[in-house]
Amino acid sequence: MVSAAVMPRPGAAVELRRFPAPRPAPGGAVLETVMSEVCGTDVHLHHGRLAGVPYPIIPGHVSCGRILETGGPLADLDGRPLEPGRLVTFFDVFGTCGACWHCLVAKAATRCPHRRVYGITTGADEGLLGGWAERIELRPGVRMLPLPDGLEPEDFMGGGCGLPTGLHAIERAGVALGDTVVVQGSGPVGLNAAVFAQLSGALRVLVLGAPAARLEAARRLGAEDVLDVEAEPDPAARARWVRERTSGRGADVVVEASGVAAAVREGLEMVRDGGRYVVVGQYTDAGEVLLNPHVHVNRRHAAVLGCWGFEYTHLHRGLALMARHRDRFRWRELISREYRLADAGRALADMAARTVIKAAIRPAP
Amino acid sequence: MVSAAVMPRPGAAVELRRFPAPRPAPGGAVLETVMSEVCGTDVHLHHGRLAGVPYPIIPGHVSCGRILETGGPLADLDGRPLEPGRLVTFFDVFGTCGACWHCLVAKAATRCPHRRVYGITTGADEGLLGGWAERIELRPGVRMLPLPDGLEPEDFMGGGCGLPTGLHAIERAGVALGDTVVVQGSGPVGLNAAVFAQLSGALRVLVLGAPAARLEAARRLGAEDVLDVEAEPDPAARARWVRERTSGRGADVVVEASGVAAAVREGLEMVRDGGRYVVVGQYTDAGEVLLNPHVHVNRRHAAVLGCWGFEYTHLHRGLALMARHRDRFRWRELISREYRLADAGRALADMAARTVIKAAIRPAP
Amino acid sequence: MVSAAVMPRPGAAVELRRFPAPRPAPGGAVLETVMSEVCGTDVHLHHGRLAGVPYPIIPGHVSCGRILETGGPLADLDGRPLEPGRLVTFFDVFGTCGACWHCLVAKAATRCPHRRVYGITTGADEGLLGGWAERIELRPGVRMLPLPDGLEPEDFMGGGCGLPTGLHAIERAGVALGDTVVVQGSGPVGLNAAVFAQLSGALRVLVLGAPAARLEAARRLGAEDVLDVEAEPDPAARARWVRERTSGRGADVVVEASGVAAAVREGLEMVRDGGRYVVVGQYTDAGEVLLNPHVHVNRRHAAVLGCWGFEYTHLHRGLALMARHRDRFRWRELISREYRLADAGRALADMAARTVIKAAIRPAP
Amino acid sequence: MVSAAVMPRPGAAVELRRFPAPRPAPGGAVLETVMSEVCGTDVHLHHGRLAGVPYPIIPGHVSCGRILETGGPLADLDGRPLEPGRLVTFFDVFGTCGACWHCLVAKAATRCPHRRVYGITTGADEGLLGGWAERIELRPGVRMLPLPDGLEPEDFMGGGCGLPTGLHAIERAGVALGDTVVVQGSGPVGLNAAVFAQLSGALRVLVLGAPAARLEAARRLGAEDVLDVEAEPDPAARARWVRERTSGRGADVVVEASGVAAAVREGLEMVRDGGRYVVVGQYTDAGEVLLNPHVHVNRRHAAVLGCWGFEYTHLHRGLALMARHRDRFRWRELISREYRLADAGRALADMAARTVIKAAIRPAP
Lengths: 365, 365, 365, 365
Fold this sequence. Notes:
Oligomer: homotetramer
Order of helices and strands of chain A: EEEHEEEHEEEHHEHEHEHEHEEHEHEHE
Number of strands of chain A: 18
Shape of chain A: globular
Radius of gyration of chain A: 20 Å
């Protein structure tokens, strides 16, 4: 028997439960969990703000573990064997059908209706399909990625799900060499967006967020300047702060990673004429916002780009870039605190209160 | 002396005034106006809804005329001489500097701060710089385009400024072969968007608008189906109408050409996941709209694309395509009525009341 | 027992052989073949010019049939049931893994090493996996597409594999509204490229090819002008012919669909500065060509774009567009002659001699 | 009177000549030259390998100087005054008309037929229009860029014309986050391409070139690995070297910056299926190359992209990025040696012999 932290239903306390030790299906695998994370989505799950979640669930969608057993020989995309003992992460999305209109015609793979996600759309009665558990059961077809040499679980989990999400947002933005990029929000997604903006050729990155510890992290991750939105509550003043740093024109790219609906109006005021605005932080319904289509979109000739989820390619490339740049961008320092499985509820509360940047769960007994 | 219809100030009646017959500057030209138009912008000008307009003005930004005199030898882009007697139109935008940050770095030419537009940002005391006049004065550098063989002024003015605007909107949309395109609005811009959507590879075009005469025009221009928004005032029912025609998924592309702020929310409900939404109809400030960034942009992975003005290339290519397809798309039939210069006020009133699709001004005495 | 025409090995005569009547696997289906085709690839197969072909094979990669039996309930991408009696075609590619580096990271799906193609990379001892047979066995996962209402097998097979190939080539070209497109080659791929160029917004299409019957077909399909390359053997004169029709500048887009290596040099002479050149006709190794990188690529700022195979989306959208435009573009007239299964060898010879535009096989007894 | 080094005609020795001290035209300026460069183009000019050069000429197209006098008040793109004493560079291209088909319709600005370039298409009898002179005369409309704070002439000239050329090539390549980029050629353009590939998100950059000093520079500029093409003369072995470093697949992007025609065939062997190949090094006619369209382009689904010249935006953004990253990439170290004006011929010889990476000319007396 192994332990897992279970979220029984929205609002209820997280409980430790015991499950039978899993065995891999043919083509699948079982991981001994080394580290998982508590991300903003987990807070949303606890608040019941996502539709269609099959509570009770084992949260933890992006995780890191050691292969314990495989259901036959497995290999990664480069053909390297994935054998017991290997430290890996895995792409948390599975079930994307490759056979529906979204997959085949629109090529909008993150919108495939068959898509499922570990720790979010998987129920605890289906098995150990979340990272807040001593073991994770990888269904056949779930894609594992070995941690590159020199990368430790702490590095990878310092990025966590924000790594591929931030990369996807920046890819969607189409950063040009020399662009000025503004990031609204200094949580894990915003911080990773700040990193990938720089890796994509941004000349400068400006971050607006809170609290101070997150803004200090933004600076360490290369942001040229930061603005504490708690110290400056006036949206007009914040937009002015951006314009003062962009010859009055606004930024080439603004990435919304705040989770606050009002940020969208505010952010559009920061975009230059002909610029791009990526909305990646509205993962759950955070309410409505009043916009002026003439001022914010039409006359500005702006592109407002929604960015939903991420694909395997984002995780694959994000992981490789992390290995290459781990000294320049010290992702591991984003983990403010580690928690045992029994303290998952506390981790969730700290994340909700934003007293940590990233909260890591270490399920090992 | 020649006559021109002058809009003295917002709200005031249009007046006929006399001006000295103009002579061309070196590199410029004078046209004898054959036909000009009354477009939605002129109605906005009359309502005083555009900022920075130097009233009194001579309206009429897209026009057609015969070259009366040139200030030295002139040629079009293919090197063909532009000589007196030639029937031409001209690109109504001039003064784009080619030397500012927007022109040189951002390549957002329609946002150059030096850009000026005939009939909109030119005052009557600067000269005959609008089409509601017997003569039009073309400043040096204004680009003339000969009407292609077989194309008559009635054809071209049936397209009018909606031709390059509709083309630009569809170019911005990035229509893929086989796309379903929805157009919100059945005025000249919407109708031209419907045409260029088909020319760009759309499988089907659906148009929502009013009144009936415009929807009939939409059908004649190839729309597969139309919805009268006056007969169906419920936005949810309109979105449902689109979804019923798109396997429940929504359209690949939706073009807003309505001028109504609320249309933006409604239109976003019609876009498929991963689809594109072009905002071209909010040329003036038509108010605000409440959007849900999670539902309308982020989860939908939508691209919302503002489209401002048009460039020379859009007029050049639109004109050539019109010459090629004038039998398939009978633009000239969009002109509901022609007016003498003295009746410009009436033309404006008819346009405002939407009792005409396009109102043409014939300034010839 | 059912009959199939088998190509035993390169150079050997096509033979009629008897096979056991197939039954569908679960999730698969059996079709009664209505019509298949002989395309340029089949000629290459007969000449042994493709690597890795598991002779003996049953050729015929794009076909049309009636569902005889399914291995359980099946549906198309819009959820419509695929039941016995339904007239369908199918995407001839199967086995694309969705799990390798090409599929997941590069998103170069036509280069997945696991990709297999009916009638080309399938051996006769694996089953009835080619269209030159009374029955076709559809493996589980092979995607069927019902012929849209009003479309007959003759229409669809008039397009055949050239339909999705031509669409893919034009999509790759990125045709802009108003472009002039030149097509080198007047075989089925070239003719379909000419059609889709027009559907994508080309102002004009010019076709160079032979023999006369194919050029007449090109004209009927909307080509503005054609040049018989047998009548004009001088490559310089051919390029001049294009430049004379493009103000001396060359075409915006040139599509190579000739299968002749020398055409690539010739075609690059026809591209305007900053234009695009798509190479789709070099499906097999047709030899080498001498190019000048300075003249043909660098100074011209040209984009030379290889185009390999096609994806499901191209067939899906091509089929829908064909249904919409079958009166404007009469694909069915491209079928010069129909052959019984026993005459497949003759069909192949006629195709090789280019005495037909498209040769159709009707396997029904 | 001031001195300038003049190239009288191809093959003739460079001579020092005296010119009257220039005065600025209205809207123009005169610079006191601080530093100019000898680039590969100058070697080509000396060998007479460019068409249409109006010998005698004053070479030196990218330069750095101090404003001596302006013809009235001037400002840069951000509105900052350009006054005497200011250290600037300038965009060497002028005369782009903004009014022809290439400028307006095709938006292929580097192919405008009116485009002229300092030090290349300007004759010595037109004035001091090249950097190998004590003074440079800036015609009205020539765009000056102040050197950003902290950037010295040595930094900027270490990049020289390779800076905007390398940036343009990489922009043309469309580097994705995580790409592997191969650069063929280790001259100034290749080295700058290696830098901008990294700034654009490349995971790794591999450089093939010679001699050893240039490869060492490549390593210092961040190349992960380098191959000396003089030590490995076998093209097949070089392509293998790339494939061994890319899981056998080839690189996502290969940039040709070698100036050798044969490199194009070799480089295409290094590109992965679906990858991109940029040809930027064939600035002059370096001869022909035998390619296999099937193998190198069609089956590979490759994009081969010519890259001609650069635009203002590339210089503007390159300069800003250089200021930001001058510690990470030490451009100034690329200047192997400085020469007085009188030694320009020697500089040219050293550049031709590749005994220097960059040769800088210091015209100050």
